Amino acid sequence: MTAVTMDGRRLSEEIKGKIRDEADTFKKDGIEPCLATILVGENPASKVYLRIKHKSCEEVGIKSRNYQLPEDVGREGLIELIGGLNKDESVHGILLQLPLPRHIDGYDAISAISPDKDVDGLHPYNVGRLSSKRYNLIPCTPEGIMVMLSRYKIDIDGKYVVVIGRSDLVGRPISKILSHVDPLQELLFNVDTLLLNSNATVTTCHSRTRNLEKLTRDADILISAVGRRHSTDLSSSRKLLESLIGIFNSLGYYPDFSKRFERDGFIITKRMVKDKAVVIDVGVNKIEGKIYGDVDFENVRKKAGYITPNPGGVGPMTVAMLLHNTLIATSKQTKHELKFDLERLFGLE
Predict the structure, then answer these.
(1) CATH code at 163?
(2) How far apart are CA 12 and CA 145, in angstroms?
(3) Are strands 290-292 and 285-287 parallel, antiparallel or unpaired?
(4) Which residues lie closer than 8 Å to 16 by C-beta, 6 or more apart?
């Protein structure tokens, strides 16, 4: 048995096509949806992520602007920029690229963004709305995960879900959404249509969780959002491996450990997964120039029922939901009605 691969790239392109059509209807009414991004410093990974986001905006007809501030900018400088964007009626969404330099309080900075322009869904107001099941804007990655589960018609009602990670971007919000009765009821444009009935039982795990493997083996749905390798020092592991190879070679044996090394360090391995489980890989790890997820994809797919690749799974959906949130924010601020075919968008016809 090989798991069904949940193709985030294909689904995100489908959604982006609908967003492009919707953006055109705004423009016909003289409204140009606009996303403003803010980058503090020169973080290389942040620059890559922002390029992807701006390119995606261009592809769907959403205007985007980037504001880059120096690494040593003070709190006042950042807050002043955010305040100006809040007042700018031509800007409908604001995204503060994380992480921020250590001298800037992230909570303070995010709290300065207008909740109706907070397309990342991290403002305390939006977090509170999420907890009370009265959604305004929610983080893009959890939203993307819910769309994928819905599109692949994965039943969540009454299922046992294990979420590894408790970040504000992924772990905490997805745990809350999955345990809600009507998790997407007000997520989309304040529509009252019941899109997905969750009622899952959710366990949130983290670095101090004991017996993690016992919990994951019981999970009907397993979501890993750790973003770091299980092995704390892969360079040391490689050196050890090279030493072992040298010993074997001196004894006249020439084993090929390359495939084994590629599997080392994953948070989620095949033995940790229940038969036919749904496995969602959110983690991003860059090792020696190559992107890995938290999950040993090649081996886990032989046991799971559904699995997301990484890259190519949750990542593209996160970007699509950023565009989606930008349109929601634009609609709320301009009173322009959105005309998405919601049932088709989420595969619920």
Answers:
(1) 3.40.50.720
(2) 11
(3) antiparallel
(4) 56, 59, 60, 320, 323
* pLDDT at 195 > cutoff 70: no
Per-residue pLDDT reduced to its tens digit, 116-132: 999 999 999 999 988 87
Q: Let me know whether 290 and 161 are in one domain.
A: yes
Domain count, the chain: 2
At position 177, the amino acid (one-letter code) is: I
- Those residues with Cβ within 8 angstroms of residue 185's Cβ, 6 or more apart along the chain or in another chain: 133, 135, 191, 192, 193, 194, 195
235, part of any domain: no
Bond prior to 115 in cis (omega within 30° of 0): no
- What single string gives the DSSP state of each residue in 98-134? SPPPTTS-HHHHHHTS-GGGBTT--SHHHHHHHHTT-
- 3-state SS of 64-89? EEEEEECCCCCHHHHHHHHHHHHHCC
pLDDT for residue 181: 54
Residue labelled with tokens 């993690």: 212
Confidence of residue 112 (pLDDT cuts 50, 70, 90): very high
Q: Which two tokens stand for residue 80?
A: 């002043």
344 versus 133: the higher-pLDDT residue is 133
- Domain of residue 222: give its range: 135-230+265-314
Burial group, residue 42, by CB count within 10 angstroms (0-12, 13-18, 19+): exposed
| pTM (predicted TM-score) | 0.84
The encoded tokens of residue 173 equal 């919000």
Q: Please, what's the b/e burial string for 219-245 (b: 16 or more CB within 10 A of its CB; e: otherwise)?
A: bbbbbbbbbebeeeebeeeeeebeeeb
